[in-house]
């Protein structure tokens, strides 16, 4: 399975190729699916370009995308998209409950949502998604406590898939980092599909490794702004086409 990651936390300041509005996201998704993408991952954004989990932001983005594609569509639940609110009972700390409240308030539901297992509150957040019938993509970032926490989680057997996410952006070392993460989670994935991907300099080497290993993978403006030959990508569809090209 090849997923397209339309925008991520990037903004127009990063590249003019980053889709922001519901209409732009829908057109980007339509073109990417036409190019061969089989799944969509999106970060719904406020008009000022900030990732958000608000139902007034998530709903319009999902409605626009789902109106033009017939593949599953998922969203982020990253902690940066909903800064946790102060909880007086916890003193100066911050509570992760805000993201759970947001998920429970959604009026338009995604097919799946990614949960970063290294973030505080991941377990409660995944539980809230499952309660609403939303598939959970377990985001396991290399170099974080996430993989270990996931392997100990009672929810691990219930996730839709494992996202093996390689934070090593060095093209030379990223594949080795990927293999190490895959070895770490191999015994605790409970037979769930694994989607392997990298970021920036590691995006294309890790994608090639995923293809070599027969794993699901993804590509898109969130993961890289560049084509394999180093040229700037015009859009997500061009990245999908490059990934599907022989030797991509």
From TrEMBL:
Gene3D superfamilies: Aldolase class I. InterPro entries: Aldolase_TIM, BKACE. Residues 77-99 are annotated as: Disordered. This is 3-keto-5-aminohexanoate cleavage protein.
């Amino acid at each position: 399975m090849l997923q397209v990651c339309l925008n991520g936390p990037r903004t127009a300041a990063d590249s003019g190729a980053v889709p922001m509005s519901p209409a732009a996201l829908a057109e980007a998704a339509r073109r990417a699916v036409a190019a061969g993408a089989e799944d969509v991952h999106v970060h719904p954004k406020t008009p000022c370009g900030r990732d958000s989990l608000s139902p007034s932001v998530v709903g319009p983005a999902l409605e626009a995308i789902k109106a033009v594609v017939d593949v599953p569509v998922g969203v982020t639940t990253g902690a940066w998209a909903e800064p946790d609110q102060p909880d007086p009972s916890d003193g100066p700390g911050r509570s992760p409950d805000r993201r759970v409240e947001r998920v429970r308030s959604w009026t338009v539901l995604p097919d799946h949502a990614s949960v970063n297992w290294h973030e505080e509150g991941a377990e409660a957040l995944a539980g809230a998604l499952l309660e609403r019938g939303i598939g959970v993509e377990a985001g396991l970032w290399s170099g974080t406590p996430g993989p270990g926490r996931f392997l100990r989680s009672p929810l691990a057997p219930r996730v839709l898939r494992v996202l093996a996410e390689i934070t090593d952006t060095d093209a030379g070392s990223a594949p080795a980092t990927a293999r190490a993460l895959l070895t770490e989670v191999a015994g605790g994935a409970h037979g769930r599909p694994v989607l392997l991907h990298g970021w920036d300099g590691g995006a294309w080497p890790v994608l090639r490794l995923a293809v070599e290993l027969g794993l699901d993978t993804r590509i898109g403006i969130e993961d890289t702004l560049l084509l394999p030959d180093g040229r700037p990508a015009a859009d997500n569809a061009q990245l999908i086409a490059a990934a599907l090209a022989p030797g991509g």
